[in-house]
Write a structure and sequence with these properties.
Rossmann fold, single chain, six-stranded mixed beta sheet, 209 residues, ABC_transporter-like_CS, 6 helices
């Protein structure tokens, strides 16, 4: 997916978070959003996902050369953040079948196929609300990175993951398809190193290829 960001600004209670951002994220990019705490990384990612409106400016999305209407953008995006949650009253198996019913996880005909790629000894019938924060993060990332939506947005994706979980995560990143566009909001050196382009929200905004 291609994203064209034009003169994007966001303010809360008339306090500017960022102003007049203009840049492009091309299909298949591995793109990082960096900046100090409070610079607007998470806010920008939420706006890119369509889950938050900018104060001003326009984002245009294209998939294989065709403009995506705003009302159907949600069908093309996965967004994972530590503050986002899944339906925790469901078990892992029930969550899988819910996602399948929504037309997701098309590459996994049965639960066990997807479950084996989580590389963790979950209890499939246990309610997710009983999982630790790291386990929940692994589930969210597994639902996202093992799917094929064209835009993947990750906010500090390795937060709450142990070292084994981080290794698993970076292995999954390497399996993303070439057409999938990845945007990571982070200041973590390993997460940023995976990306080949970057926008820094501190001070003068710049895009580095």
């Amino acid at each position: 997916m291609d994203l064209y960001i034009q003169k994007l600004s966001k303010a809360f209670n008339q306090k500017p978070i960022f102003n007049n951002l203009s840049f492009e994220i091309r299909a298949g990019s591995r793109f990082a959003i960096t900046g100090s705490n409070g610079s607007g990384k998470s806010t920008l990612l939420k706006i890119l996902s369509g889950g938050m409106l900018p104060t001003s400016g326009v984002i245009t999305y294209y998939l294989e050369g065709k403009k995506i209407p705003e009302e159907s953008l949600f069908r093309q995006v996965h967004f994972v953040a530590p503050y986002n949650s899944v339906i925790e009253e469901l078990s892992l198996k029930e969550l899988f079948h819910l996602h399948k019913s929504l037309g997701l996880l098309k590459g996994y005909p049965i639960f066990q196929d997807w479950f084996s790629n989580l590389h963790y000894p979950f209890s499939p019938d246990q309610q997710i609300k009983s999982f630790s924060s790291g386990m929940k993060q692994r589930v969210k990332l597994g639902l996202t990175l093992l799917d094929d939506r064209p835009l993947v947005l990750l906010d500090e994706p390795t937060s709450n993951l142990d070292e084994q979980g981080k290794t698993w995560f970076f292995n999954l990143l390497g399996q993303l398809r070439e057409f999938q566009t990845l945007v990571i909001a982070s200041n973590d050196a390993l997460e940023i190193s995976y990306c080949t382009a970057r926008i820094n929200l501190d001070g003068v905004v710049s895009v580095v290829d």
